[in-house]
Amino acid sequence: MKVYLIGAGPGDPGLLTIKGRDILSTADVIVYDYLANAEFLSYAKPDAEIIYVGKKGGDHTLSQEGINQLIVDKAKEGKSVARLKGGDPYMFGRGGEEAQELLAAGVPFEEVPGITSAIAGPAYAGIPLTHRDYASSVSFITGHENPDKPGSSHNWKALATGTSTLVFFMGMKNLPHISKQLIENGMDPETPAALVHWGTTAKHRSMAATIGTLPEEGVKQGFTSPSLIVVGNVVKLRDELNWFEQLPLRGKGVVVTRAREQASGMAKSLTKLGANVIQFPTIKIDPLADYSEVHAAIKALNEYEWVIFTSVNGVKHFWNQLAVLGLDTRALGASKIAAIGPATADILREKGIEPDFIPEKYVAEGVVKGLLERGMDGSKVLLPRAKVAREVLPEELRKAGAQVDILPVYETRPAEEQREEVLELLKSGELSCVTFGSSSTVENFFDLVSPDLIKEHRGHVKLASIGPITTKTLERFGFTPDIEPEDYTIPALVDALVEKL
Asked: Where is the Tetrapyrrole methylase domain (predicted)?
């Protein structure tokens, strides 16, 4: 029985601490709020209970008192509870209140610090909060005071004249009041000031003005909550040090339609380039209900001259069954190994196998050409793959005289995760591109999203295809892709997005 108050950081998933990630991976219950990046939930163990207690559209799922009672109750069931909070739990996050409630209830707890948005947001905007030439101290201040109440908990005179850098949380609604109080209490109206909106996330943007003009300029440039207010001479460094806003895909909404098991590499690459990545796995990768046929094939591996792996998933599920039988890579010692694509080759290398053949073109037709050049007549070939897949490769090999045994090792099913988010972004104009990594992702995507709806928004939404086979499937739905790389690989597709978005 224990509760962990975990700071999830300001939004960039890479800013979660290693300790926070490790606790999430073992927790029995995860209680999270709106400001905690939902991607962190992927670290949860499969049987973890996940409970959302945030606020959307002005509605609270639970009151603070309800949240406190929930985490106490879950802990008293003997469970390990991860309370995931945006930023740092103790920095205007009411983590201290939750800790007190836990102590009062006799529940042990730990606080796992997180990177606060007050530091990370300005840093991504190129504003160091301290600098030897500009600032030697910082104040963190809530901007959420009611300007109509008598008196203030802030010492405005001290803030206006005594601290080098000021950072206001939750202050957009009161920005005119904050500006007025600082100037009336002695701050030069020309003091540099900035707004940082959704700092460190794909929605991140910033602007700089002066404390005198910031309220008006913020409105003109459409800044809303959540935005930090930064005041001080360090803001002068923004134009020079603003690295994050220079990323080539910053603010671009990109849908990745690959299965979640396959999408992580592409999603990470796009996120590093500043994109707002929406993982929309139109297919799920599931194990088979019965592996007896796979086990029989594994026991007869020495009969196969070639084993051809066409995907990372094929390798993973095949090796899972090797392990079930108490075998390892040595079981493939008598066979030559072909890998379709660099990602498949890389995972085979992780298993200790250097493929005997990797085609130059990563489509079935290119594979067939390369294998035929190696002489397939009379060869016995094993093809571990999805239960349903294109038949070009086995058919062409059979025409060349090979004996091909297709071995399903996993199956794909339609998925509907994130559908509503994609539709919202599409209708709001925030979606820039939908990427397709296979024909099945095209078909499943248009099962979930109407082709007519995409056609309505083609003015601002581009479609990206990994290669000609996928492109042909898009054409069946009435679309010509805007982006198709010369090499049919995920890295090449990412490079093409950078060039054309």
From this structure: 2-214
Task: Indicate the pLDDT class of residue 261, thresholds 50, 70 and 90.
Answer: low
pLDDT per position as a tens digit, 445-459? 998 899 999 999 998
CATH of the domain at 238: 3.30.950.10
Q: Do residues 103 and 128 share a domain? A: no
* Residue 441 shares a structural domain with residue 485: yes
Region of 282 (left: φ > 0; alpha: ψ -120 to 50; beta: rest) is alpha
Residue 469 parent element (H or E): helix 468-476
Domain count, the chain: 4
| Whether residue 98 is found in the same domain as residue 111 | yes
Instruction: Give the domain range for residue 348.
Output: 286-412
**What are 133's strand-pairing partners?**
none
- Encode pLDDT of 366-402 as tens digits: 677 788 888 777 889 999 999 887 788 888 888 888 9
User: Which residue among 363, 391, 412 closes a domain?
Assistant: 412
Q: What is the Cα–Cα distance from 342 to 349, expressed in whole angstroms?
A: 10
User: In this structure, are 109 and 127 located in the same domain?
Assistant: no
pTM of structure: 0.74
The whole-angstrom separation of Cα 191 and Cα 95 is 33
Measured distance CA(130)–CA(118) in Å, rounded: 12
- What is the set of active-site residues? 33, 55, 170
CATH classification at residue 85: 3.40.1010.10
Residues 6+ apart with CB under 8 A from 258: 266, 281, 283, 437, 438, 441
Confidence band, pLDDT 50/70/90 cuts, at residue 57: very low
